[in-house]
Amino acid sequence: MDDIAEFALRMGDNALVLGHRVSEWCGHAPALEEDIALANTALDLIGQARMWLELAGEHLGRTADQLAFTRDAWDFRNLLLVEQPNRDFGVTMTRQFLFDAFHLPLLTALSGSSSPRVAEIALKSAKEATYHLDRSRATVVALGDGTPESHARMRDALDILWPYSGEAFLADDLDTRLVEAGIAPDPSSLRAEWERTVTSALAEATLDAPGSGFFHQGGRDGSRHTEHLGHILTEMQFLQRAYPGAAW
Amino acid sequence: MVTAAQVREWLSEIPDPEIPAVSVTDLGIVREVEARDGSVTVVVTPTYSGCPATAAISLQIDAALRDRGISRVEVQQRLSPPWTTDWISEEGRAKLESHGIAPPNPAGGPRRCPLCRSTSVERVSQFGSTPCKAQWRCRDCLEPFDYFKCL
Ligand SMILES: [Zn+2]
Question: Taking burial as the number of CB atoms within 10 A of a residue's CB, which of A98, A130, A134, A186 is the most buried?
Answer without folding.
Answer: A98
